[in-house]
Write a structure and sequence with these properties.
Shape: elongated
Strand order of the largest sheet: 2-1-6
Number of strands: 6
CATH topology: hypothetical protein PF0899 fold
Structural class: alpha+beta
Order of helices and strands: HEHEEEEE
Helix content: 25-40%
Distance between the termini: 32 Å
Number of helices: 2
CATH architecture: 2-Layer Sandwich
Largest sheet: 3 strands, mixed
């Protein structure tokens, strides 16, 4: 379960930026193509924050859909998997636009 190590990394980043202040909440953007199990991330969060300045902090996750642009026809399509071809007649590769990110977007500190 790599979500545990991802959660540890997120918490380390937030604690560093908080510089000792109590963290009340954090907002993440997680792409649908990032390979992250959101339920596991939510499960790990209170375990990893226990005993830190983030203990009891709220975790908010914004899910970002996978989107790509066809390199042939320039249409944008939604993706459920990271690879694919455009359904257009050109069958050209896709250029990924969003959906593979895992970002700390916001944090609320006291």
């Amino acid at each position: 379960m790599h979500e545990l190590s991802l959660t540890r990394s997120v918490v380390a980043i937030v604690l560093e930026k908080a510089a000792g202040r109590k963290v009340k909440g954090v907002r993440l953007s997680v792409g649908a193509l990032a390979g992250v199990e959101l339920q596991a991330l939510r499960f790990c969060f209170p375990l990893v924050t226990e005993g830190t300045a983030m203990e009891g902090a709220a975790l908010h996750i914004d899910e970002v859909p996978g989107k790509a642009r066809c390199t042939g026809c320039a249409d944008e399509i939604t993706l459920d998997v990271p690879l694919g071809l455009c359904p257009c007649e050109k069958r050209e590769p896709l250029a990924l636009l969003s959906g593979d990110e895992l970002l700390v977007k916001e944090m609320e500190v006291e």
